Amino acid sequence: MNPKLEDYLVTRQVTKFKRLDYFALIALWLLVGVPALTFLLLPSTGGRPATFRSVSKNNLKQIGLATWGFHDEYNHFPVAPLNKKEHAPISWRTALLPYMEQTSLYKRYDFFTRWDSTANSSVVAASINEYRAPLAQVEGKLNGYGITTYEANSQVVRNDRLISKSDIPDGVSNTLMIGEINNAFPPWAEPDTQRNPAAGIGHGSRQFGGYNQSCCQFILVDGSVRCVSNNISLTTLQDLADPADGNVIPEF
């Protein structure tokens, strides 16, 4: 903005407020200022839960699309079998970078060294919005590493063997793939951090858990997002976690 014009606008604004009656200013503060300050002091998760859930849901959808993009190219889900013997282990989230519009980060990643090596320090320090729920109390970085608030089902995204769509006889619409976590957030580039949904939904360091009191959002293998109740029976949750137990899953 032109400095002279900016000074003019500021001067007009100050002059305008000088004309206001003292008591009118107090009334204006009570009407607008106090409620606004109260809103700002409220925990973010309490003030805007619907917005947070919506953004997190969209993040999960993007991760789900990336997972299927990976599957279409390699005919299996990530992660460890992608590595050649001379490569260091990588995170499933690192494997998905090219499908998350993060190709530049992926190209800078050195697959011949550990994820936390000096060679990868600038890459793993990146904070990727799609890997992190928009919560005020969740910092974008931890000890210099970009963190994540999403984790994969360890029974589908495995480190020991390939899993493809054909290895899920229970059905892709009946198997959990990736979900929200609300505790012990790992760096997105750290390998072998998957969790087992069969451990229950809660606040444990190895559990999945959402950001409200009612449910935790998961993406199923078919790409759909479901808000799974915190009160779901452990048996049903175990069946949803296992891609090949053959059990009939009730409505959830």
Automatic annotation (TrEMBL):
DUF1559 domain mapped to chain residues: 48-146
Pfam family, one: SBP_bac_10
Keyword vocabulary terms for this entry: Membrane, Transmembrane, Transmembrane helix
Protein name: DUF1559 domain-containing protein
Residue ranges crossing the lipid bilayer per the database entry: 20-42
Species whose genome carries this gene: Calycomorphotria hydatis
